[in-house]
Amino acid sequence: MTNLTQLRIAAREIFDETLRALDPLAALREVASMKGTTLRIGEISIDVRERKIYSIALGKAARRMAAEIDQLLGDRFSGGVIASNDSGFTATRLSSRWVAFLGGHPEPDESSLAAARASFQLLQRANEERALVIFLISGGGSAMIEWPVNETISLDDLKAANHLLVSCGASISEINSVRRAFSAVKGGKLAARAPDCDQITLIVSDVPDGEERNVASGPTLAPPSDAPDPREVIDRYNLRTRLPAAIVQVIENAQPLNSSSDAIREHLVLLSNSDARQAAANVARQRGFIIETAADVSDLPIEEGCELLIKRLEALCAKHRNAPRNRLAAGLVPPVGTSADSKHSDSIVCLISGGEFACPVQGSGTGGRNLETALRLSRSISFGTVALCAGTDGIDGNSPAAGAIVDSTTVDRATAIGLDVEDFLRRSDSYSFFVALGDVIATGPTGTNVRDLRILIAGSVLI
After folding, report:
1. Which range marks the domain in which residue 227 is found?
2. How far is C-alpha 342 from the chain's CA centre?
3. The domain that contains 332 carries what CATH number?
4. Chain segment 38-53, per-residue pLDDT in tens
5. What share of the chain is helix, strand, coil (3-state, %, to 5)?
6. Which of 63, 77, 230, 272 could form a disulfide with 178 if both were Cys (CB 3.0 to 4.6 A apart)?
7. Span 188-226, pLDDT tens digits
């Protein structure tokens, strides 16, 4: 008989331990050091004896990275601008050299514009001094710092455009191709304001591996050569008549950024979704679980992604069925009166995937792609199975949750109290569904952001 409680506890502990392994401060500390007057970051070494050093930190992981810059540089640090969310401003203390903004998210606000103005001023000063600028970029930065490409675009236009883009079902590369067209920050335009400065960009990535130019819409990096055409994107998702007219106008007339410099231009990814998947696999493996990481089940339409996860889990179970394992090796606490070395009839298998499923918003409810993924999986998972779906940033869609956990009893428990899974899916109201069941995963903002994590565990134990 399956002990779902133990599997649910295991899934949550795997997720929590994975979050602890994704600390941006620790990741930066691993690649950066000061020896005398030489600053080393990755493979780059710079003599900063006569140099001023500035920094601009953006996104959900900005505060932790900024704290390490304080620690690393000390009095050599000349000043910085940081725009982050609430978690950043409560988790870590920064020096008075930083000018801090509580940037808007998921849509830009007046603080996002103020952060842009302050960044422009800092970069102008840095450029005059031919300083070194260290950019600390993480997901969420697209909204937390923003400035329109011309004065015809209002803040309301920026908000409306961002809301439509993130809810239309487009991929992150498609969304960012449109954002870059109407922004004076994105697509390398922020860094272009300091052409005479050496620049190093350190990234905590919330985009597919290898697509770091899309993090925060790439304020310091030119778009990839194969970036989608923004005009084609707004036509593909029927946005042309729904976007503000001023936004459509600049998209029609968008021109590529032409900037070149002889100064240093380097970037380095500190953390990504592959690190999250690997960390989760390590934690699960330590518990004795049989692990499979489905790196390819990533950026898919949500229905297709959920179907593929179920198929992969079933195949994994079939492959390892009837392989007895020691209870303690499997990370399970033996029930009272049961020997610690007793065997359970099936192995505990754990399927791990990450990335971000495309999840178009259908209704006016509260939820996000992780909550909806969990809800969809609840309809298909087999007896003795648990699935946890959550965002590593702790925020899913327009909800205050990171995600949710489901098991093979979820649908029956919901039906018993009058909840209809299909109704909640139609209304995009997955958060309300899981609040009613008490199955929400709530971490609060985590101070990191490396996309989503899905942990599916299946197995049975003797009781």
Report:
1. 23-271
2. 41
3. 3.40.1480.10
4. 999 999 999 999 899 9
5. 40, 20, 40
6. 230
7. 999 999 999 999 999 999 999 889 999 999 999 988 888
